[in-house]
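Example 310.
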Amino acid sequence: MNNSIISDWKPQHAEIYGKQNLLLHHRLADSGLFTKSALAELIDKCPSSNYTLNTMGYDPENPEWRQGVVRDVCGEEVIASIETGRMWLNLRAVEEFDTRYQKLLDQMFSEFQENMPGSHTFKRKMGILISSPLVQVLYHCDIPGQSLWQLEGEKRVFVYPTGKPYMDQRSFETIILKETDEEIPYNHEMDEGASVYILKPGETINWPLNSPHRVENLDCLNISVTTEHYTNDIRKNYAVNYANGILRRSFGMQNLSQSIHGPMVYPKAALAFVWRELGFHKSKQVKHTVDFALDPKSDDGMIDIPAYEL
Ligand SMILES: [Fe+2]
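Predicted structure in complex with fe (ii) ion:
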């Protein structure tokens, strides 16, 4: 196991993976796929559908999240602008347009499968985050299972428990139904219940499914990787909460169970499937507006542009 991507996996981790916060060490840097020059090349070939560029406000209690665009700027300049600016570039599902990352992603998950026999994952994705010194990602939660892998720079990661007051059922439904961008109500007092990590290069953290979290970069460029995956239970969790959101909004039902076991799971899964396939909820989904462009010539690396909806 000397060349394994996770360098310090122990058999007892299988019991707690996905259930408790787990900080481990990795060797992703050995692949050579996350150096600045490798990422500059990757940016140059990244389709516009596979990245998001954001900038954000300074107060985590008052989210101010803007979306931007990269136009006619080479990858090297993009990274240099992020290093001096206040931006967050997410290269999403990189395995879709570069087979080297697909191969690495397969290797990562086959290692997990070896470490946790019987676990079956699908819809696996890899994202690469290149982000400015001192930027933050506001309080939010993700739907799939997720891990964060640090390659360069350092970030402070706050992970909160699931459930009230950190995340209530209705807020979670708004995320699943895409009525909001993963953001959920937050105030500073919640930090008392958070586990806080300074994530350093070579470290990776995994947390329980749907745990709210937020991130603050330290004063340095950050290069990080996110991996996401589904299992049968995660898919059921998605379907049950999606259906609950529909039942609450369209049928006025309350006291909805979030259990992924029992006789109601399959009817709920069917409802979620039909609702999604027929696009019944599309008109209520959040719309994204782009209103700045990355600009290597400006001091903060960005310039306002006339807003347009995606
Ligand atoms: Fe996240």
